[in-house]
Each structure stands twice: as structure tokens, then as C-alpha cells.
Design goal:
Distance between the termini of chain A: 54 Å
CATH class of the largest domain in chain A: Mainly Alpha
Structural class of chain A: mainly alpha
Helix content of chain A: 40-55%
Number of domains of chain A: 2
Order of helices and strands of chain A: EEEEHHHHHHHHHHHHHHHHE
Strand content of chain A: under 5%
Shape of chain A: globular
CATH superfamily of the largest domain in chain A: Citrate Synthase, domain 1
Oligomer: homodimer
Largest sheet of chain A: 3 strands, antiparallel
CATH topology of the largest domain in chain A: Citrate Synthase, domain 1
Radius of gyration of chain A: 23 Å
Largest interface: A-B, 122 and 122 residues
Chain lengths: 395, 395
């Protein structure tokens, strides 16, 4: 493939192709996202998170018996050790949930019987453990910080349903389960986004998969990445009602501030995931008797598109965080858990990328990520600075 | 600056300049490493870790009163909360120390009063806390896993001496302190190495500094990065005595295996840090009555250089991990703590890079790292794959 020559200093590698992958393809112009060849829309509408995770990790959709085997393995790994729960209980209630999830992911490594085994098989086993146990950590933390005991997993439930059950202690209705399952599929993978890149970068040193996923959790926590869904919801809460949308939008644009949930590094059209999330948000809001969050979102989308066209002569598009916020809120998920919920889905993509980074058979083999930087700092004349004894240094 | 156009797919960004920095400069051709203009050799021989950390974080060497103020702040942050010690006590004794350090770094965020403040000042305060508290976590863990109580910090001691004291409960002699201090300086910073790049990548999402440093710890743990010093020592232990070096070298080269501690992504001459570490390793080995580790290292260096020249007609050079291994071993540091000890030094560089990534005044401002990938996976014909119902899928 021919690479165009672009200036790439201090541009966050934006638009620069740095690696090949077989995991997913994002077509930002057409608004298409595929996981190993399958449109995410088809997957969200017709499969389960378990099938999508199988597709990402094992490179193909499972048939019925493969899926049964895969689910059995996942179900068997749903519990977390009592000593990890004990560690969570030492944490201050006000801890940021993403920090708890990052620490919890790192601590899972302490319990993995294959932690020192550097094979594809062992790493895939660890990937399954991560996919099953990170939701358990999050659910346990939500209970613990509210003074409740963690709920043991329910083996009869799907991955999506079991997480909601472990968090609330109640089995949700089928429509909520189906919506949440679709959300987990939609957020599972998105090529070389910042958190996945962090996971691959760490994995490229031959660090184990827990270290890589913990790094990815850290990256996802940033407000320019996964943290954006929380910020969208805080914006909706600040707006308060659909009739206040226009005023809010005008005020923000006048002040030169960013509107959360709009724009994306890759998509130049509406994010295909947002198009699936929007009707779910509408339906979920109606079911929950809180239609205003979807209504505000929709109003904000339309008015923002209009305003950007008029004021800046540019098109602006909604991204994945825009409608997931109102959807999660109507489902009763606490606002500060939106980003961790993103994480327990994306862990499927992260682990698939770690497997590809460490065990891909393709040539050239991936190499340790070690870029160069351009030093623009001080020298003292043409040579290195002379080190002055401390008492001769100026203030 | 003119960028050469290079193929950068699947090459780990090796040799590709992606950002500007004022923190350090690595001249791989001349074997020079400077921190903000000062040769690392001068710093290691004439300053303390505290002065080097001040240089990295605050962009200049401190004068006497600035250093006093900086040290006072660091000393005040040396303790870790009792509930964090309680969390460490829940961890299995056989946990990998780098995993403990990654989890511990993430948990430190739970206790930081400024965790939600996104200013340079708050982030610099957090950087100081990280520099002071990560050694405390490591020392506490070494005690706990051996069934001992953590040792409270000693305010009278330097940063280097206090770590050794908290780990062993004994104040080491002055020469050991001076050597260890020099090691902390030498390992503190090295531009866009893999772990620093991970820290910057996470920080570029506007995640907080703990999340970024925890990612860096994960990256450093890999055997192709910080994990190499442990592997050098295991190699020396396997060799066992200087007279077995030649046989070992021949066997490894015949088998096509890599010799640990030789070669570097950037240096094309001996690593300037190795040249400082070697005589310290020699002296420390003599003091400890274990001269064989240095002798083996030296013999291996000479014989390997000869063998690479003869067999492959290439020059090979020692890197930073080559002599730090025998040095740390003679100091009595447990082999599996070599990489964590690297981390408690490099945290100064990581935090300086996070500050630069998030608050540099230079234009263009750093952007979220979000590269692109080239999809080489499946499509089913020219279009997306058709999703078959699960019972129609082939095995």
C-alpha cells in the first residue's frame, strides 16, 4: 500500500496509517463499521455480545455448538476472588469508577493461573477471563460503594443480563436486556482508537494482556475518548428540558465551547452506531417514563446541525456517545458508570487487538512501538549545558 | 522540519518522528542523552534524583532554596494511606510486582484530593505525589509479601536512601545510597520510549496523570522494555561463572536466540548510561563480595562484541539494562524488583511528559493520539458479509 507523505509531528497520528489489522474496518466517509467483515448494524440487530466477542477473538461467528462452548467458558469465569472483593472494600466510596476498574483489571492478573504463560492459547484464556470478570468488578464496586454486598453471578443469564443483575440484584426485563446487549456489541470494537492503541502499545513490549487492558481502561477514561458519554449526559441534565436546547446551543457556540457528542476523529457522516442507538434511546425513554432525554438529544442534534451549517458552513455529525448517554440514563445506569460500561464492552476489542499484536501470523510481525521525538528544548550554546554547582545556580 | 517519507505500517513507528518535546534528547549516533540540555552523565555524577526530578518537571535545575522547597514537598508525600496498605495486604504473595505497582498507581488516584482538577498546578502536585508514593508502594509490597510490616518513611533521608530504608528497614551505607541515587537519575527519562509513549497516549485523551502513569507501568513491564533488566540477571544466574560465558554465548548464538541487554532501538553505540553503570557494578560487586556478576557481564560484553563482528560483521552495543542487573543484584535488590525499581525512577520522566502533553504552551497543541489502520481482514465478496442465522452457520 502506498503511503502519502504527511507531516505527522504533534498531530496525534491523526489520519496516519500505522498498522494493518484484520479485526475491524471503519469507513469514515460512508459511515460503515465492520467487525471482521460484518456490519456492526447487522451484528447489533441479530446477534448477542457473546457471538460478537467470539467473532472478534476467534475470527469467526460461532455456530450453535461453538457458541454454547464459548458461553460455557465465559459463564465459568464470571466470579471474582473474595480477596479482590476485599481489596475493593478498602477503596474510598468517592473513587472514580474508571480508576477502580483500572486497578481492578491490574489486580485480576494477580489471580490468573496462566499469567506467566506467553502463548496464544493462554492469552486467549486470559482474554475470556477479562471479558467475564471486568463486568463483575464494576458491578461489585457499584454495590460496595452503596454499602451493599456484591451479588453472585447468575449462570442462567446472558452476559448482558448478568451484568445488570449483578449490579442491581434484579433480573431486568427482556427489552432492556436486548437493548443493553446491542449496546455491548456496538461499543465492542473500533479499530485503532486511543484506548485500543494504548492496549496494543503496551502489548507490543510483550507485557501480558492484563497490563495492556489496564492501560486501555486508563486511556478510555479521558474526556476526549470514552469519558465523553458521561459529559453528554451531564450536558443534558444541565439543559433540563427540550425547550431550553436552542438557548443552550447558542450560548455554547457563542462562547466557543465544544458541544459534547458531536464530531469524530474518523467519521465524516453520522456515526453508524448512533443511528442504531437513537431509536433505542427513544423507546427506552418512553418505557422509563422519561422521554425528555431522547427528545432533548434529538432536538440538540437537529439544531446543532442547522447552526453549524449556518454559522460555520460546515456539517457536523453525532457520534456514538450522543445517544448512548440518554439510553443508559433511561436504563437506570448511574451517570458515572457510563464510561466503565463502555469499557466492559470494549474489552472484547482490546483483547482481540492484544492477540493480534502478540500472535498475528502475518509478516511483517508487529514491532515494539518506539517512535522518535524532535527535541526543541534548551541547549546552552551549541553544546550541552555546563552543570553548575548548586550554590552557583541562579534563581 | 522536513519529514522523510517512510513506510510506517507494522514497524512500531521505529525511526518515525511523531512529536516535539523539550524534555530530553537522545543522540543515538553519538551516544549522548540530555535532560533539558544537561548530559545525563553530568547529572548522575554531580546531582541527586531530587534535582533531576526538579529539572524534568519544572524545566530547570533548582538552586539551593528551590531544592529545599522541592524536597520538602516530596518528603511530605512519602507516606501511603493505611487503606492502600490494606488493599496490598489482600494481594497474593506470588503477584508479579509490576502488576502490584500498576494497580497501586491506579489506586493512588482514589486518595488524591485534586483528582478532578485539570490544571497544570494540580497535575504537578499529583506528579510529586506519584514520585514520592510509588516507591512507598513498592517498598510496602516487598515487606508485605515477606510477611513483614511496612516501614514508615524516614524524613531525614534522601529519596534514594528512603526507598532502600523503607524496603529493608535499614539505612544503607553512603556509597550504596550514592550509587542508587545515580541509578535513579540514569533511568529517569528517555524521550519517547514505549512506556513514556503509553503515558502520553493516555494523557492525550485528557485522562488524569495516575491513569497515564499506570499505563506506563504496564508498558514498562514487558520483556522488550523495562522487563529486560530482570532477564539480564536471570541470564547471569544461568551462566553462573565467568569461565562459562563463552560457551553460553556460543550456544545462544548458534540457537539464534537474543542475548539480553545487547542492542537498542535508538543507540548505535554503547548506551551512555551503561558506561556509567559498569564501574558502579564493578565497585558494588567488590563491596558485596560478589565480583563475579560484574566479571561475567564484562566478559560477555567483550566476547559478544567480538562474536557479532566475526559471525555477522556487525557491531553490537550494551544497553542500560546490561550493567544495572549486576549492580542491583549486588545491592541486594530482589531480581523481580529490578523492573519496578526502574519504574520508580522513570516516573519522573513519565510525569514530566504528561505535563508536557497536557499543558505545553507550544503550538500546535498536542492532539489525541488516534492513528489509522489498514484493514486486511475478510469481506465476503466486494461487500460486507451477509449475517447468517446461527443455525445455518458452518463449523
Amino acid at each position: 500500500m502506498e503511503e502519502e507523505c504527511k507531516p505527522i509531528i504533534n498531530t496525534g497520528l491523526r489520519g496516519v496509517t500505522i498498522a494493518s489489522t484484520k479485526i475491524s474496518d471503519v469507513n469514515g466517509q460512508l459511515g460503515k463499521l465492520v467487525y471482521r467483515g460484518y456490519l456492526v448494524k447487522d451484528l447489533a440487530e441479530n446477534t448477542t455480545f457473546e457471538e460478537a466477542a467470539h467473532l472478534l477473538l476467534k475470527e469467526k461467528l460461532p455456530n450453535a455448538s461453538q457458541l454454547a462452548g464459548f458461553k460455557e467458558k465465559l459463564v465459568a469465569e464470571r466470579d471474582i476472588p473474595a480477596s479482590l472483593v476485599a481489596a475493593l472494600k478498602t477503596r474510598p466510596n468517592e473513587s472514580l469508577p474508571m480508576d477502580i476498574l483500572q486497578a481492578g483489571t491490574a489486580m485480576l492478573a494477580n489471580h490468573d493461573p496462566e499469567i506467566n504463560v506467553q502463548t496464544r492459547e493462554a492469552t486467549e484464556n486470559m482474554a475470556l477471563r477479562l471479558i467475564s470478570k471486568t463486568p463483575a468488578i464494576l458491578a461489585a464496586w457499584e454495590r460496595i460503594r452503596n454499602g451493599k454486598d456484591p451479588v453472585p453471578p447468575n449462570k442462567e443469564l446472558s452476559h448482558a443480563a448478568n451484568f445488570l443483575y449483578m449490579m442491581t440484584g434484579e433480573i431486568p426485563n427482556d427489552e432492556i436486556i436486548r437493548f443493553f446487549d446491542a449496546c455491548l456489541i456496538l461499543h465492542a470494537e473500533h479499530s485503532f482508537n486511543a484506548s485500543t492503541f494504548a492496549a496494543r502499545e503496551v502489548a507490543s513490549t510483550r507485557a501480558h494482556i492484563y497490563a495492556a487492558v489496564a492501560a486501555a481502561v486508563g486511556s478510555l477514561s479521558g474526556e476526549l475518548h470514552g469519558g465523553a458519554n458521561t459529559r453528554v449526559m451531564n450536558m443534558l441534565l444541565e439543559i433540563g428540558s427540550p425547550d431550553r436546547v436552542e438557548q443552550y446551543l447558542n450560548d455554547e457556540l457563542e462562547a466557543g465551547r465544544k458541544i459534547m457528542g458531536l464530531g469524530h476523529a474518523v467519521y465524516k457522516v453520522d456515526d453508524p452506531r448512533a443511528l442504531i442507538l437513537a431509536p433505542m434511546s427513544k423507546r427506552m425513554g418512553e418505557m422509563a417514563g422519561q422521554p425528555q432525554w431522547y427528545e432533548m438529544s434529538r432536538e440538540l442534534e437537529l439544531k446543532a446541525k442547522e447552526a453549524f451549517k449556518t454559522r460555520k458552513n460546515m456539517d457536523i455529525f453525532v457520534n456514538v456517545d450522543f445517544y448512548s448517554a440518554s439510553l443508559y440514563y433511561s436504563m437506570g445506569i448511574p451517570v458515572d458508570l457510563f464510561t466503565p460500561v463502555f469499557a466492559i464492552s470494549r474489552v472484547a476489542g482490546w483483547t482481540a487487538h492484544v492477540l493480534e499484536e502478540q500472535f498475528a501470523e502475518a509478516a511483517p510481525k508487529p514491532m515494539l512501538y518506539r517512535p522518535e521525538s524532535d527535541y526543541i528544548g534548551d541547549y546552552c550554546g551549541p553544546e550541552e549545558c555546563v552543570l553548575e554547582p548548586i550554590y552557583e545556580r541562579k534563581p
